[in-house]
């Protein structure tokens, strides 16, 4: 994968979601949901790293 392929893909996905979600309150909720998803995945990854370093 090229260096900028993933950010370009993510931007395209965001634009598509925004275009299909004209209600700003719903778009704000989706933003919060995806932010929480990313933060939770980062937390799980950090916990895995700690567990692996303890072994």
Name a few traits of the molecule.
55 residues; mainly alpha; 0% strand
* Class derived from helix and strand content: mainly alpha
Topology order in helix (H) and strand (E) letters: HH
The residue ranges in which pLDDT falls below 50 over 5 or more consecutive positions are none
Number of helices: 2
Radius of gyration: 16 Å
Our measurement of the CA-to-CA distance between the termini, rounded to an integer number of angstroms, reads 33 Å
Give average pLDDT, whole number.
96
**Could you give a short account of the major beta sheet?**
none
Q: Can you tell me about this structure?
A:
- The structure is a single chain.
- With 55 residues, the chain is mainly alpha-helical.
- The chain has a domain at 23-55.
- 85% of the residues lie in helices and 0% in strands.
- It contains two helices and no strands.
- It has helices at residues 5-20, 24-54.
- It starts with a helix and ends with a helix.
